[in-house]
Amino acid sequence: MANSPINTDVEQLLTAKQACEAFPTPVSMPTVWRWMLKGTRGVVLESIRIGGRRYTSVEACSRFIEASANDASPNTRKKHNRSDSLRRAKAVLDQFGV
Fold first, then answer.
1. What is the CA radius of gyration of the chain?
2. How far is CA 7 from CA 11, 13, 55, 63, 84, in A?
3. Once rounded to an integer, what is the mean pLDDT over residues 32-57?
4. Which of 41, 60, 71, 77 is deepest in the core (most CB within 10 A)?
C-alpha cells in the first residue's frame, strides 16, 4: 500500500528499524509497520517500497508526528456502561430461552 510520495532526492530514508528511533520516544518495530501500512486515527506514516524493502524518511516521521498531534478527532470507541452491557446480554439470553 503506497501512501504518500517520499522525495528520495531530498529526504533522508530510514528502514523501519531505524524509524523506531526517529520518534521522540522510541517505538517498537511492529508499531512502525502498523503506522506505515494502516496508520492510526486516519494518519498514515508515509513510506516507499524500493527493491522489496519498505522505507520511510526522517521528514515523513516529522510529518506523521505533526499530523498525529493535530488530530482533533475524538476517540471513536465509546465507553460502555457495565449495567447496560449486562441488560443487553440478558435480553439476548431471554430471546433464546436461556
1. 20
2. 6, 9, 12, 13, 51
3. 94
4. 60
Which of 60, 61, 65, 66 minimizes the C-alpha distance to 6?
60
Q: In the chain, where are the structural domains located?
A: 13-95
E strands within the chain?
13-15, 48-50, 53-57
User: In b/e form, how buried is each residue of 24-40, taking b as 16+ CB within 10 angstroms?
Assistant: eeeeeeebbeebbeebe
Locate 35 and state its grid cell.
Answer: 503506522
Tens of pLDDT along 87-97?
A: 888 888 888 88
Question: Beta-carbon neighbour count of residue 85 at 10 Å?
Answer: 10
Model confidence, pTM: 0.67
Beta bridge partners of residue 68, listed in sequence order = none
